[in-house]
Design goal:
78% helix; Arp2/3 complex 21 kDa subunit ARPC3; mainly alpha; single chain
Length: 162
């Protein structure tokens, strides 16, 4: 029970930071996606099952609170959790460069899944313009915030393992 309570507090704290504090650092309405970074770091440290579960929880929270296409963030985060969780057996858990390298890849996965949903529902969208205005700043923010988020998740994972 203590594990679940700590996990819920971590998710809510990251979401509160993302939705309140990071809005002051945004560029054209784009800021860091801490929920995606939390999912990727968890998937690297715990594997794809836990990564998909974390992606479901964080994506559902974001879908419920933002009012965008319901299920889009959940699907994107679960996909990222699955992909990066599959690599968790092949990487050293103490390696802090891997999450920094994977942050732009995760941002691209998230961008193309959400763009695919938008196009699938018939909304007009210039993909190159959207990539220039959304994906480039998102990648920049993800690289900057990936190491601090991974350190938090790593310390949390060590505390759980003890």
């Amino acid at each position: 029970m203590k594990l679940i309570a700590m996990l819920v507090v971590t998710i809510l704290a990251m979401y509160a930071a993302q939705s309140s504090l990071l809005t002051y650092l945004d560029y054209n309405g784009v800021s860091a996606n801490l929920m995606l970074l939390l999912t990727v770091s968890t998937a690297f440290l715990r594997g794809h099952y836990f990564g998909v579960a974390m992606g479901f929880c964080t994506g559902l929270l974001q879908d419920l609170t933002t009012g965008d296409f319901f299920g889009c963030a959940t699907f994107a985060y679960m996909t990222a959790g699955l992909i990066f969780g599959k690599f968790s057996e092949r990487v050293v858990k103490e390696q802090f460069l891997i999450p920094v390298i994977s942050a732009p890849i995760a941002a691209a996965i998230y961008f193309f899944i959400t763009t695919g949903f938008i196009l699938m529902f018939g909304y007009p969208l210039d993909i190159l313009d959207a990539a220039n205005k959304i994906l480039v700043p998102l990648i920049f923010y993800q690289i900057i915030f990936s190491l601090p988020v991974h350190k938090i998740v790593y310390e949390f994972d060590k505390k759980i393992s003890d």
